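Model: You mentioned two targets. I'll fold them one after the other.
Researcher: Yes, keep them separate.
Model: Target one:
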Amino acid sequence: MSGFAAGGKWRFDWLMRRRHADCDMLKTKAAPRARMQPLESGQVWHMAELKMQVELVGKLLVHYKLAKFNAVRIPNSISSKVNIEKFLKKNKAVLVSQPKAVPAKK
Protein backbone atom coordinates (compact mmCIF):
# COMPACT_ATOMS: atom_id res chain seq x y z
CA MET A 1 0.00 0.00 0.00
CA SER A 2 2.88 2.34 0.60
CA GLY A 3 3.78 2.07 -3.12
CA PHE A 4 0.27 3.17 -4.07
CA ALA A 5 0.42 6.21 -1.76
CA ALA A 6 3.79 7.27 -3.13
CA GLY A 7 2.63 6.74 -6.72
CA GLY A 8 -0.60 8.59 -6.02
CA LYS A 9 1.27 11.57 -4.59
CA TRP A 10 3.55 11.70 -7.64
CA ARG A 11 0.54 11.67 -9.98
CA PHE A 12 -1.17 14.36 -7.95
CA ASP A 13 1.92 16.61 -8.03
CA TRP A 14 2.27 16.10 -11.77
CA LEU A 15 -1.40 16.90 -12.31
CA MET A 16 -1.16 20.09 -10.26
CA ARG A 17 1.95 21.26 -12.14
CA ARG A 18 0.28 20.50 -15.45
CA ARG A 19 -2.89 22.33 -14.47
CA HIS A 20 -0.83 25.35 -13.39
CA ALA A 21 1.07 25.29 -16.70
CA ASP A 22 -2.20 25.15 -18.65
CA CYS A 23 -3.50 28.19 -16.79
CA ASP A 24 -0.37 30.15 -17.65
CA MET A 25 -0.78 29.27 -21.30
CA LEU A 26 -4.39 30.46 -21.32
CA LYS A 27 -3.41 33.89 -20.02
CA THR A 28 -1.18 34.72 -22.98
CA LYS A 29 -2.86 36.58 -25.84
CA ALA A 30 -1.71 37.29 -29.34
CA ALA A 31 -0.99 40.90 -30.24
CA PRO A 32 -4.07 42.54 -31.76
CA ARG A 33 -3.88 43.22 -35.50
CA ALA A 34 -5.09 46.41 -37.08
CA ARG A 35 -8.55 46.20 -38.56
CA MET A 36 -8.78 46.08 -42.31
CA GLN A 37 -9.78 49.32 -44.05
CA PRO A 38 -13.00 49.22 -46.13
CA LEU A 39 -12.39 48.90 -49.85
CA GLU A 40 -12.34 52.21 -51.74
CA SER A 41 -11.47 53.22 -55.29
CA GLY A 42 -7.80 54.08 -55.74
CA GLN A 43 -6.37 51.92 -52.95
CA VAL A 44 -3.13 49.98 -53.49
CA TRP A 45 -2.56 46.80 -51.43
CA HIS A 46 0.80 45.01 -51.22
CA MET A 47 1.25 41.32 -50.43
CA ALA A 48 4.32 39.06 -50.40
CA GLU A 49 4.74 38.84 -54.20
CA LEU A 50 1.67 40.68 -55.48
CA LYS A 51 0.12 44.11 -55.55
CA MET A 52 -3.55 44.93 -56.04
CA GLN A 53 -4.87 48.24 -57.26
CA VAL A 54 -8.57 48.81 -56.62
CA GLU A 55 -10.07 50.65 -59.59
CA LEU A 56 -13.78 50.91 -58.80
CA VAL A 57 -15.87 49.73 -55.86
CA GLY A 58 -19.57 49.18 -56.41
CA LYS A 59 -22.37 47.92 -54.20
CA LEU A 60 -21.43 44.24 -54.59
CA LEU A 61 -18.50 44.06 -57.02
CA VAL A 62 -14.93 45.37 -57.14
CA HIS A 63 -12.95 46.15 -60.30
CA TYR A 64 -9.24 45.65 -59.62
CA LYS A 65 -5.83 44.91 -61.10
CA LEU A 66 -3.76 42.13 -59.50
CA ALA A 67 -0.18 41.62 -60.65
CA LYS A 68 3.37 40.80 -59.67
CA PHE A 69 5.64 43.76 -58.99
CA ASN A 70 7.56 43.56 -62.28
CA ALA A 71 4.56 42.85 -64.55
CA VAL A 72 4.25 44.73 -67.86
CA ARG A 73 0.62 44.09 -68.78
CA ILE A 74 -1.91 43.91 -65.98
CA PRO A 75 -5.39 42.56 -66.72
CA ASN A 76 -8.54 44.06 -65.20
CA SER A 77 -10.53 41.70 -63.00
CA ILE A 78 -13.93 41.76 -61.30
CA SER A 79 -14.93 39.94 -58.11
CA SER A 80 -17.28 40.33 -55.17
CA LYS A 81 -16.34 42.50 -52.20
CA VAL A 82 -16.52 39.52 -49.85
CA ASN A 83 -14.09 37.46 -51.94
CA ILE A 84 -11.62 40.35 -52.24
CA GLU A 85 -11.69 41.00 -48.47
CA LYS A 86 -11.10 37.30 -47.73
CA PHE A 87 -8.23 37.21 -50.25
CA LEU A 88 -6.56 40.29 -48.74
CA LYS A 89 -6.93 38.93 -45.21
CA LYS A 90 -5.61 35.47 -46.15
CA ASN A 91 -2.55 36.93 -47.89
CA LYS A 92 -1.88 39.47 -45.07
CA ALA A 93 -2.16 42.44 -47.41
CA VAL A 94 -0.93 45.86 -46.30
CA LEU A 95 -2.60 49.05 -47.48
CA VAL A 96 0.09 51.19 -49.11
CA SER A 97 -1.77 54.18 -50.51
CA GLN A 98 -5.15 55.56 -49.54
CA PRO A 99 -7.07 57.63 -52.14
CA LYS A 100 -7.01 61.39 -51.65
CA ALA A 101 -10.28 63.06 -50.70
CA VAL A 102 -11.63 65.20 -53.56
CA PRO A 103 -13.28 68.46 -52.44
CA ALA A 104 -16.89 68.94 -53.53
CA LYS A 105 -17.58 71.31 -56.42
CA LYS A 106 -19.57 74.46 -55.71
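Model: Target two:
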Amino acid sequence: MPLQELVEQFNVGWAAKDEASNFKQKCDTDIVMKECMPKIEEEITLQVDELIKVEITNLYVRLGITKKKNKEKNPKPRKPKVKPAPGEKLVGPREPIDLMPDLIQANI
Protein backbone atom coordinates (compact mmCIF):
# COMPACT_ATOMS: atom_id res chain seq x y z
CA MET A 1 0.00 0.00 0.00
CA PRO A 2 1.27 3.45 -0.79
CA LEU A 3 1.92 5.76 2.10
CA GLN A 4 -0.92 8.10 1.11
CA GLU A 5 -3.50 5.28 1.43
CA LEU A 6 -2.17 4.36 4.86
CA VAL A 7 -2.43 7.98 6.00
CA GLU A 8 -6.02 8.15 4.75
CA GLN A 9 -6.83 4.89 6.52
CA PHE A 10 -5.43 6.29 9.77
CA ASN A 11 -7.35 9.56 9.39
CA VAL A 12 -10.63 7.73 8.79
CA GLY A 13 -10.26 5.16 11.54
CA TRP A 14 -8.12 6.62 14.31
CA ALA A 15 -7.58 10.39 14.04
CA ALA A 16 -10.96 11.41 15.45
CA LYS A 17 -11.10 8.57 17.99
CA ASP A 18 -10.83 9.54 21.67
CA GLU A 19 -8.45 7.12 23.38
CA ALA A 20 -8.17 9.05 26.66
CA SER A 21 -10.29 6.53 28.56
CA ASN A 22 -8.44 3.56 27.05
CA PHE A 23 -5.30 3.71 29.20
CA LYS A 24 -4.65 -0.05 29.08
CA GLN A 25 -4.91 0.02 25.26
CA LYS A 26 -7.57 -2.66 25.03
CA CYS A 27 -8.67 -3.64 21.58
CA ASP A 28 -11.60 -1.87 19.96
CA THR A 29 -14.34 -4.47 19.61
CA ASP A 30 -16.14 -2.61 16.82
CA ILE A 31 -13.11 -2.71 14.55
CA VAL A 32 -12.45 -6.36 15.35
CA MET A 33 -16.09 -7.23 14.60
CA LYS A 34 -16.00 -5.42 11.26
CA GLU A 35 -12.85 -7.27 10.20
CA CYS A 36 -13.68 -10.75 11.48
CA MET A 37 -17.45 -11.11 11.00
CA PRO A 38 -17.50 -11.61 7.20
CA LYS A 39 -14.98 -14.46 7.47
CA ILE A 40 -16.83 -16.05 10.38
CA GLU A 41 -20.23 -15.72 8.65
CA GLU A 42 -18.87 -17.36 5.50
CA GLU A 43 -17.41 -20.24 7.49
CA ILE A 44 -20.66 -20.75 9.40
CA THR A 45 -22.73 -20.77 6.20
CA LEU A 46 -20.44 -23.44 4.72
CA GLN A 47 -20.80 -25.60 7.81
CA VAL A 48 -24.58 -25.15 7.90
CA ASP A 49 -24.83 -26.03 4.21
CA GLU A 50 -22.90 -29.25 4.85
CA LEU A 51 -25.17 -30.13 7.78
CA ILE A 52 -28.27 -29.50 5.68
CA LYS A 53 -26.96 -31.78 2.93
CA VAL A 54 -26.30 -34.54 5.49
CA GLU A 55 -29.80 -34.15 6.96
CA ILE A 56 -31.39 -34.30 3.51
CA THR A 57 -29.55 -37.50 2.67
CA ASN A 58 -30.64 -38.96 6.02
CA LEU A 59 -34.25 -38.08 5.23
CA TYR A 60 -33.96 -39.74 1.83
CA VAL A 61 -32.64 -42.89 3.48
CA ARG A 62 -35.31 -42.91 6.21
CA LEU A 63 -38.17 -42.37 3.80
CA GLY A 64 -36.78 -44.73 1.20
CA ILE A 65 -36.71 -42.13 -1.54
CA THR A 66 -34.23 -42.62 -4.32
CA LYS A 67 -32.99 -39.78 -6.40
CA LYS A 68 -33.91 -39.88 -10.05
CA LYS A 69 -30.96 -40.24 -12.34
CA ASN A 70 -30.73 -37.91 -15.26
CA LYS A 71 -30.98 -40.09 -18.31
CA GLU A 72 -29.64 -38.86 -21.57
CA LYS A 73 -32.56 -38.43 -23.86
CA ASN A 74 -31.97 -39.24 -27.47
CA PRO A 75 -34.85 -37.58 -29.21
CA LYS A 76 -36.19 -39.83 -31.92
CA PRO A 77 -36.92 -38.10 -35.16
CA ARG A 78 -40.66 -37.91 -35.52
CA LYS A 79 -42.29 -38.72 -38.74
CA PRO A 80 -44.62 -36.01 -39.96
CA LYS A 81 -48.24 -37.07 -39.85
CA VAL A 82 -49.85 -37.41 -43.22
CA LYS A 83 -53.12 -35.53 -43.29
CA PRO A 84 -55.82 -37.39 -45.16
CA ALA A 85 -57.23 -35.66 -48.19
CA PRO A 86 -60.90 -34.67 -48.02
CA GLY A 87 -63.11 -37.56 -49.04
CA GLU A 88 -60.34 -40.12 -48.75
CA LYS A 89 -62.42 -42.21 -46.37
CA LEU A 90 -65.11 -42.60 -48.99
CA VAL A 91 -62.71 -43.22 -51.84
CA GLY A 92 -60.16 -45.38 -50.06
CA PRO A 93 -57.06 -46.58 -51.89
CA ARG A 94 -58.70 -46.55 -55.34
CA GLU A 95 -56.92 -45.05 -58.32
CA PRO A 96 -58.37 -41.92 -59.99
CA ILE A 97 -58.97 -43.90 -63.22
CA ASP A 98 -61.10 -46.41 -61.28
CA LEU A 99 -63.19 -43.52 -59.91
CA MET A 100 -64.11 -42.18 -63.37
CA PRO A 101 -67.16 -44.44 -63.95
CA ASP A 102 -68.58 -43.56 -60.52
CA LEU A 103 -68.10 -39.85 -61.16
CA ILE A 104 -69.78 -40.11 -64.58
CA GLN A 105 -72.77 -41.89 -63.09
CA ALA A 106 -73.07 -39.20 -60.40
CA ASN A 107 -72.92 -36.49 -63.17
CA ILE A 108 -69.89 -34.84 -61.64
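Researcher: Noted. Anything on target two?
Model: The radius of gyration is 42 Å.
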